[in-house]
């Protein structure tokens, strides 16, 4: 059977198909790059309608990455999907604290999720400027609280938890905050979506 | 803001909502567990219609895992999403060869994708009995070739590459093979879907 075996040609062809199928639905260049990469990752065109990017989000994220910002993710999966080699060019690193022993201990003691305890640990390091949450609404709620309390001022929040309990609400709450954000409205999202958004920004640089 | 903070309650409630919204669409118990976990991971009910499970797939996979089968994934993301602690109870391990130096070298020499070269490495270890492909159609095509040549006889193939070039075709080809398989028809799928399917089976044991 004949099939394309060259990765960059596969990706190029995929983006052509996506652009074609989006038809009249066009976007400003950088916003389009993010939305198309999310569709590329999910094969789900609904993301063209539910992905919301605050006006300052892309510029703020690019500036932060160029200045060596570190990225925090809520899951190992999201961390795993981010192009860390590309980030390292700017001296950036990705951290995920969910499996740390002190996080597990704190979560147990306080009766909260590990995702929440991990966010608390994340804001303890000033280098962490970009927060990427693809799974846990509780992490996004906790991050919102820290922002409102003035404990952290992220350069970008990618808030795309997927799910049926709290996900939509956690993202809706974010759209009212004065912080650069990218969210997916409603239930959809996930770790692959989170990583795709970060990579789309990395590939703009 | 009030929200559920106990992970197992969040999951329980999510599965209740999914079952309710599936309505008249019911499944045999174990098939339902897989489909619902995929929907839980994607918030996308289309998976109820496109997920195809061969009649022998679940029993074969359970038997293999209980016998200590190892799992191979095409991406680090899929590996990252699989519950490795649970698998280790049965002495199973997860491997992903995509970043191995010898794989990169072979791919370059032969002008094939790293995903294809990684599959070639994977079939070299007899302990690898479950093949999980969530991203690369080329890996699934290559695996199909090895099965047809009699070089490997998997106890389960989870074939759920996502995408616009080759993904649908790579999965369609699998439905004609005499091997236990779980696929998602069409373009949809991905690393999170792949991991959800494996975890659903692990949680049945």
Can you characterise this structure?
Chains A, B: Keywords: Cobalamin biosynthesis, Isomerase. The first copy, chain A, has 205 residues and is of the alpha/beta class. Chain A has one domain (48-204): Rossmann fold, CATH 3.40.50. Helix content of chain A is 53%, strand content 11%. In chain A, strands 1-6-5-4-2-3 form a six-stranded mixed beta sheet, with helices on both faces. In chain A, α7 packs across α8, α8 (114-122) packs parallel to α9 (137-148) and α9 (137-148) runs parallel beside α10 (167-174). Chain A is globular, with a radius of gyration of 17 Å. The mean pLDDT of chain A is 95.
Spans of chain A of at least 5 consecutive residues whose pLDDT stays below 50 are none
Topology-level CATH name of chain A: Rossmann fold
> What is the strand tally of chain A?
6
* Mean pLDDT over the residues of chain A: 95
Q: What kind of oligomer do you see?
A: homodimer
Summarize the structure.
With 205 residues, chain A is α/β, with parallel strands linked by helices.
